[in-house]
Amino acid sequence: MKRIIEKLNNLNKTISTMESCTGGALVNAITNIEGASEVIKFSAITYSNEYKIKMGVDSNIIDKYSVYSIQTARQMSKNISIFANSNYGIGITGKLNRVDKNNLYGNDNQVFISIYSKDYDKYYDYDITVDKETRIMNKEMVINFIIDKLLEILE
User: In the prediction, which pLDDT does 101 show?
Assistant: First the structure.
């Protein structure tokens, strides 16, 4: 994460996050690094559909594709970037090995990640399967995956 903060600082770029299943783990990892205040603009934990919608996710997208979809992650990444006026937005939604009684669709171990570049109006979309024993370990797996992808994007 330190390399990401340094790269963003050197490029004079900013980042914002809208997290669901990771519950703020990504922004926590960012803010654990000195210099993060120069690059992080805003973060939202939108654990419920209600707050995803309040933060700009179209309810029709959730109804059509489910809250656990790359389409929802894309809306999360773009809307947080627009809301915070940041160069990059990251949206994360999925399930960390659990059944969600409010959203029965989707695999119980699949996470969708979208990184949006406002400067290029481009999405970098991913989905990964988490396979660790605990939620904490699965969150770490997702964060490490995002770190790798961000480093590729910022090259």
Answer: 59
Residue 100, pLDDT > 90, answer no
3 state SS of 122: strand
**107 beta partners:** none
Helix H or strand E segment including 19 = strand 15-19
Determine the 3-state secondary structure of 155 from DSSP: coil
Q: Any idea which residue has 């205040």 for tokens?
A: 37
Among 113, 15, 116, 23, smallest CA distance to 72 is for: 113
Tell me the domain boundaries of the chain. 2-154
Q: Is 39 helix (H, G, I), strand (E, B) or coil?
A: coil
Q: Which fold has domain 2-154?
A: Maf protein (3.90.950)
